[in-house]
Structures are given as structure tokens and as C-alpha cells.
Design goal:
The protein contains 11 helices and 13 strands. With 370 residues, the chain is of the alpha+beta class. One of its GO terms (cellular component) is sarcolemma. It is a single-pass membrane protein.
Amino acid sequence: MQLPRWWELGDPCAWTGQGRGTRRMSPATTGTFLLTVYTIFSKVHSDRNVYPSAGVLFVHVLEREYFKGEFPPYPKPGEISNDPITFNTNLMGYPDRPGWLRYIQRTPYSDGVLYGSPTAENVGKPTIIEITAYNRRTFETARHNLIINIMSAEDFPLPYQAEFFIKNMNVEEMLASEVLGDFLGAVKNVWQPERLNAINITSALDRGGRVPLPINDMKEGVYVMVGADVPFSSCLREVENPQNQLRCSQEMEPVITCDKKFRTQFYIDWCKISLVDKTKQVSTYQEVIRGEGILPDGGEYKPPSDSLKSRDYYTDFLITLAVPSAVALVLFLVLAYIMCCRREGVEKRNMQTPEEQMKRPFIHVFLNLQ
């Protein structure tokens, strides 16, 4: 970042050379420069606080337009700049993000998105995420801090959770507020709960899915988990009946009556829907019985003897060399006997060869070489 000359000198009223003469800045000019520098540095080092709830989907968009004004030359109001910008995000003091937080940015010309489902273990603990923006044209950087203050959510976790697999969406498309709102509206229309929250969104690639071919605008697919406070509707449970289970085993689409309420915008794979009822899950917690901390007596320890019996490896060495050598020698003798002593057809060849050719020395040598 290039700073004014008076900033490098450390005095906003320092002399600045203009040709042969010099002049001192006026108070108004000084105030303008101070305001400009304060604005620049406040952008570079500004912190932003967000307050997501534990167990509820958190989405934060890293807007390119927000960072464009921090890279010199600073654009004027109304000026359009389309520099490629990428982002790097990490937990302060660590090389990567927390385990529950993911990040995606398709191209340097699209916005980045931080998303994930905060865990209850981090409630009340500020999570500081360092966001570094890189201008790929000028190689300038700008850094912000995102302070995530995780709050405890009411009725966490929601007792009834359903996970849908949407085939015609990528994760960044599904994270858009209007698209996610449309999906939650469709689910609410089918489920009719009083409280409905998006819990998590996961790309199909993170579940072992394949990268789609770049044809026919194919999508990666995305898993969306939602939670509600009322039991599952009859429509959502239709996938559990034997007829639909049989169709799923035969890789056929099941017959779901409420699918038409999603089909206008979302293509759901009903065979991959997952319904979880937290109220019926049996707790596997086992009470830990504290003991005295003393191991049972296993007798006196007897270490191995210090004097080890010596072993002669000379015989093993001879056997290791002698056996392969003997086998190789036998094979060599057999091959030599076959090649040199078992030459059949020599007399027959000589009888069929004209006598004039046999008298020629070069032909005789050539035949003997064959």
C-alpha cells in the first residue's frame, strides 16, 4: 500500500517539494489526508462481529466489492473494477479453520462463502477468523478479522431432523439466502412445524461423491439437514414404506406425493433422505466408576538376562550361497549340453547341399555358424 510522503516523514505538516519551492500544507488539506489514511487503515484492520447460534447453519459471504476499495489505486465512487480476488481464511494463530467451519470460492471473480454449523462446545468462546484477501492482478493484500461469538440456541438440538439430498444444486448456490429460504419454505409447507431451522449444508463431494462431467450443466449435489420441533409428516415417511424401499433398491424413483412441491426448483433424491428422531435414541452413556488408581499386583518383574548366547551364522551363510550356486551350475551344464552336443540335422543338411557350394570356404564357414 502506497502512503503519502508526509506519512513516511512522520509529520502531516511536513514540507513537500514542488519544483524549486516548498510550501506547508493548510489545515484543511492536512485534515483531508488524515481522514483518508484513517479510512484506509480502518478498512485493513477492521474487525466484524457476528453472533450465530449453536446447531444452526451459519453463512457469511466474503463480498469482493467490499474488498475492492482497499487495493490501490483506490476506485472512486461509481468506478467499476473487476480485479480477480481470492481469500484465505484461518483461525487466528492456526493454519486452518475450526473443524465445523468450511469455505468455498469457485473462481477469483466470485464471492467467497464461510459456512458451517457451530458446535455447543464453543458457546461463549469468541472464535477469531483471519480473512486475507489477495488481488491477483496487483498482488496487494488486505486483512480483516471476523469474530464469531457463538450463542446458545433455544431448544438445542431440535428433536426431529431430516437430511435431504438435492441433485440440481451446488453448495454455493444453495447457500444463497433466497434459495435456502425457498427450500425451507417448501419443507415447512410439507412438514408444518412451529420451528424450522437449517442445521447444516454439505457438498456431495465431501461425502465421497464424484465430480460431475461438464455437460448439460450437471451439478455436484448438496446435502441439507433441517430440524423441527414436531414429528415427521406422513409425506416424509412415505419413503419408508416397503414399496418405495423396493423401488430404491432397484434404483428407481420412489412415489412421493409431496415431491411436486419441491420439483419446481429442487430435484430431491428421496432414496437418500435421512430421518432422525432424537427422542427415540437410546443413550449410550455409561457411568465411570472411579477406582483407587492402583494397578493390581502382577508379581515381581523379571527382566531378560544380560548375557545372550552367541550364534554361529557361518553355516547359514554357506547354505544361502551354496544351494543357489549349485542349481545355477546344473542349469548351465544342461543348457551347454543341449546347445553344443545335441545338434541334430547336420549330416542331413550337408547331404542336401550341392558339392560345389560345400567346396566354397565362405559358404562352409557360414553353414558351420548356423
